[in-house]
Amino acid sequence: MIIKFSPSAAIDPDEKLTISKRSDVLTVNGERFDFRPLPDGATLPASAIDCDYIEQDVRRVDGELIITFRLPVTPDASPAACFPRDLINPADGNVSIPE
């Protein structure tokens, strides 16, 4: 799995993104999304996913799920949040979100 982040201005200063992972099942701010059925080479349009934080189409390339999340940032956000690195094969559990 490759998790990418797309920084954008937070709509609400208290807005937070939380993600937990178990295999290809992601829980985003408490809502569960199961991407296990997505076959290799397939693309799931972001518009088909009822999640304001999924920024782009979700793809599976060479067996790897690639997903981009909108990352709410505030004006005082750190460089790590403003220019986040991709998370490659994060461990199951809570995903470390740049702040």
* Mean residue pLDDT: 94
Number of domains: 1
Q: Write the element-wise H/E pattern from the N-terminal end onward.
A: EEEEEEEHEE
Beta-strand proportion: 35-45%
Largest sheet: 5 strands, mixed
Low-confidence stretches: none
Question: Given the C-alpha coordinates, what overall shape results?
Answer: globular
Order of strands side by side in the largest beta sheet? 5-6-7-1-8
Portion in helices: under 10%
Question: What are the key terms here?
Answer:
single chain, 99 residues, mainly beta, 5-stranded mixed sheet, 4-stranded antiparallel sheet, 9 strands, globular
Secondary structure elements and pairings:
Blueprint: E1 2-9, E2 19-22, E3 25-28, E4 31-34, E5 43-44, E6 58-61, E7 64-73, H1 79-82, E8 87-88, E9 93-94
Parallel strand pairs: 1-7
Antiparallel strand pairs: 1-8, 2-3, 2-9, 3-4, 5-6, 6-7
Summarize the structure.
The chain has one helix at residues 79-82, and strands spanning 2-9, 19-22, 25-28, 31-34, 43-44, 58-61, 64-73, 87-88, 93-94. With 99 residues, it is mainly β.
Protein architecture, described:
It is built from one helix and nine strands, in the order βββββββαββ. The protein starts with a strand and ends in a 5-residue tail after the last strand. With 99 residues, the chain is mainly β. A hairpin with a 2-residue loop joins strand 6 and strand 7. It has one domain. It has one helix at residues 79-82; strands at residues 2-9, 19-22, 25-28, 31-34, 43-44, 58-61, 64-73, 87-88, 93-94.
